[in-house]
Amino acid sequence: MAGSAAKRYARAIFDLAKEEGQLEAWSQRLAAVREVLANPDARTVLTNPTISVQRRQVVASALLDDRVGPEGVNLARLLVGANRLDDVHTIAEEYSRLVDEDVGRIRATAITAVPLSRADADKLGTELAQKFGHEVRLDTTVDPAILGGLVLRIGDRVIDASVAARLQQLRQRLAGV
After folding, report:
1. In terms of Cα–Cα distance, which of 28, 7, 172, 27 is closest to 91?
2. Domain with CATH 1.10.520.20 in the chain
3. Residue 109, H or E segment
4. Given 11, 27, 85, 176, which is the most exposed site by the fewest CB atoms within 10 A?
């Protein structure tokens, strides 16, 4: 349920931002709102049921007013009033996905055993962009458990070229013989 509500919020923000030509501005607003509302001290106050909703909304306004303008403050007040602070991360992620989809950008995640250099990550992003014919937003993460190689996630596809996967395949072949 929380996921679908967050997606509705993100869709509403996206539609408004697109209509007003402010996709990038809203990306920045959402990042700032997420950062402030994720602060443990702020969350303690903003989720405290012993403080009235109106006072919590005033606190949210004070925390964000100089950073996100009236639109971002209204979003924060709405989330505080609806008791949906936990959704702010999902809202921002879904909004980002909608923007990427709108501009024809593909999201990919490269998982490696050791950190990729900036040059290697750029080269991989360029090769993926050429292969798919779209701009690629590449995120990189490190997972030592894959031992070496690369696991690439593009949308709902996974390409596992890791050493761990190859060792598992070898084990299965040896066990089957």
Report:
1. 7
2. 2-100
3. strand 106-112
4. 176
- DSSP line for 141-174: EE-GGG-SEEEEEETTEEEEEEHHHHHHHHHHHH
Say how far apart CA 66 and CA 113 lie, in whole Å.
Answer: 41
- Within 10 A of 130 (CB to CB), how many other CB atoms are there? 10
Spatial contact of 44 and 24, defined as CB atoms under 8 Å apart: no
Residue with tokens 């971002």: 72
Q: Contact 141/129 with Cβ under 8 angstroms?
A: no
Neighbours of 25 (CB within 10 A): 15
The residue whose two tokens read 């996709």 is 23
CATH number of 2-100: 1.10.520.20
Successive 10-residue mean pLDDT values, the chain, 177 residues? 80 94 93 91 92 93 88 92 91 92 89 92 91 88 91 88 88 84
CA-based nearest residue to 7, from 74, 109, 101: 101
Quick one: pLDDT at residue 25? 92
- In DSSP terms, 110 is beta-bridged to 140, 152
φ, ψ dihedrals at 10, nearest 5°? -60, -45
Q: What is the pLDDT of residue 61?
A: 92
What are the structure tokens assigned to 119, written together? 């040059």
